[in-house]
Write a structure and sequence with these properties.
- This protein is mainly alpha-helical and 242 residues long.
- The protein is 76% helix and 0% strand.
- It is built from ten helices and no strands.
- Helix 4 crosses helix 9.
- The longest helix is centred in the N-terminal third of the chain and has 35 residues.
- The N and C termini lie far apart (63 Å).
Length: 242
């Protein structure tokens, strides 16, 4: 029996050492796991790009739908400010149907053009530097939208305007506008109004688009349910803690 105990002793000590080491490893696990909650620089960049692609694509899709601009007061395109007096005067004279028809056609033209934004946004997002991504992640609620505006606004205007001009022609907005302006300018003593309709609609369409993108960005930052992948949860969860 004694011999057996002596023989067993090294194994007992070995087991105790193994248990001791195991306990130490287990005790250290929470620390290790906490450390892994901090995303790497690469993960930050990829997580932010994924979030931006999700938000911008959804924003474009929503606005490109029928009524995307028209049915939401935040994006809806009305008469140009220079022509507000025209609208009021024509409504007072009973031309409500003509004015409403023009407003619908302006918004339809914007909806037809907004899909042009998608490839420009994706190119800007995928070309984002690590420094840009980190600055945006810890920036304001609209830091990503502001970045996209800096990178794409000029190109968006260039892409949108010819598309909008074509759409204005297709939906008869150009004709409606010409008819309305002709009627208005015939009114005695009124000051004649000249407005570049396609440029005005382009500016309003781009402004509405960035407003929509800003809303999508805020939703991802503020609402954990919008973070639909583990990477998004990790990156924005970490940003929340900062």
């Amino acid at each position: 029996m004694k011999k057996l105990n002596y023989i067993a002793l090294p194994f007992i000590f070995s087991g105790l050492i193994a248990c001791s080491e195991l306990n130490q490893i287990v005790n250290e696990l929470p620390t290790s796991m906490e450390q892994t909650t901090e995303p790497s620089t690469f993960e930050m960049g990829e997580g932010l790009k994924a979030a931006l692609e999700k938000g911008t694509i959804q924003g474009v899709v929503d606005l490109a739908k029928g009524g995307g601009y028209l049915s939401n007061e935040a994006y809806k395109i009305y008469f140009p400010p220079s022509a507000q007096k025209v609208e009021n005067t024509l409504r007072d004279l009973g031309f409500n149907d003509e004015v409403d028809r023009l407003v619908v056609s302006l918004n339809k033209a914007a909806e037809n053009a907004v899909s042009e934004a998608k490839p420009l946004f994706i190119e800007a997002i995928r070309g984002m530097s690590i420094a840009d991504a980190k600055g945006i992640l810890f920036g304001s609620d609209t830091a990503a939208t502001n970045y996209l505006k800096r990178k794409t606004a000029t190109q968006l205007h260039q892409k949108f305007e010819p598309k909008i001009q074509t759409s204005l022609d297709e939906v008869n907005a150009t004709k409606y506008w010409t008819d309305i302006m002709t009627q208005y300018n015939k009114i005695p003593l009124v000051e004649k109004v000249e407005t570049n309709l396609s440029r005005y609609v382009t500016e309003r369409a781009v402004d509405g688009l960035f407003l929509k993108i800003a809303e999508e960005e805020k939703a991802i930052r503020e609402n954990p349910q919008q973070r639909t992948t583990d990477l998004l949860k990790k990156v924005f969860g970490y940003a929340d803690g900062k």
